[in-house]
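R.M. (postdoc): so does anyone remember the format we settled on? I'll just put the structure tokens first.
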């Protein structure tokens, strides 16, 4: 299998990942990658918003770490990016972040369905048991659709994240998926195949087969990411990701340079 790109990797600055960026790069080289991207969790407008992202005063440190790794690994194309949480009302802050450095791409993500509940947080599992699952999924996809429409992002992360712990409504999810897919297609926003889902309770790639197929049929762009929080996770389960892309009907994937999309055939 010829490896593609791994565009979703973190650093210790987010406070829940381990390993210096150079260790991720070394693993990528060992696996045969020629291109990777760091996309750590961006700061929020308030540093006390949560405890799983870099602080605002660490943003320049993050960029410097990536630049240092670029110098140490000239054989790798290394992209500079961030995973940015989308919350209604935070668009101005996200726009400000986008202008602070020369990012290659920005990944938009929805983790919060309210200002206090990040649905993938294992310490808040009890809230899932107290809420109607359809309602939670509906709020999540309303926000994900708004993120795709916002013009702030190049890629959308782990598009069916609410399934992480296995809390999935027992009804057709197409009415939630379709507006998001349409928004991504209309606004030129790619989705990623994120292999982290295989390491979570849901034991499934993000997104699952039905949403991925809908995205392919609508002409949505595609990227690949391991969501690595440790060097050993770089490129993990990319064989399964490639199979999923092929099964969904994708023929191309996207790379990014200075927020310009580069479309590349998938090497099956």
């Amino acid at each position: 299998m010829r490896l593609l790109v791994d565009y979703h990797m973190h650093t210790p600055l987010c406070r829940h990942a381990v390993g210096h960026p150079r260790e991720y790069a070394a693993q990528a080289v060992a696996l045969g990658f020629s291109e990777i991207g760091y996309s750590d969790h961006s700061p929020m407008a308030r540093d006390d918003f949560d405890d799983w992202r870099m602080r605002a005063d660490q943003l320049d440190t993050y960029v410097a770490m990536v630049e240092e790794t670029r110098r140490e690994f000239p054989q790798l194309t290394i992209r500079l990016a961030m995973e940015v949480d989308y919350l209604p009302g935070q668009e101005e802050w996200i726009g400000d972040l986008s202008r602070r450095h020369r990012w290659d791409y920005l990944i938009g993500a929805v983790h919060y369905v309210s200002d206090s509940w990040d649905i993938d947080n294992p310490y808040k599992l009890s809230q899932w048991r107290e809420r109607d699952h359809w309602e939670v999924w509906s709020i999540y996809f309303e926000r994900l659709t708004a993120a795709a429409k916002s013009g702030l992002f190049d890629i959308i992360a782990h598009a069916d994240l609410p399934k992480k712990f296995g809390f999935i409504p027992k009804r057709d999810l197409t009415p939630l998926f379709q507006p998001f897919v349409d928004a991504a297609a209309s606004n030129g926003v790619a989705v990623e195949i994120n292999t982290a889902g295989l390491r979570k309770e849901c034991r499934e790639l993000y997104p699952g087969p039905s949403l991925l197929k809908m995205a392919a049929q609508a002409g949505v762009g595609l990227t690949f990411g391991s969501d690595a929080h440790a060097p050993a996770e770089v490129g993990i389960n990319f064989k399964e990701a490639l199979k999923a892309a092929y099964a969904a009907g994708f023929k191309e994937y996207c790379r990014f340079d200075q927020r310009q999309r580069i479309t590349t055939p998938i090497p099956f």
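R.M.: ...and that's the designed sequence above, right after the tokens. Also worth knowing: The chain has one domain: 12-265. Residues 133-149 form the longest helix (17 residues).
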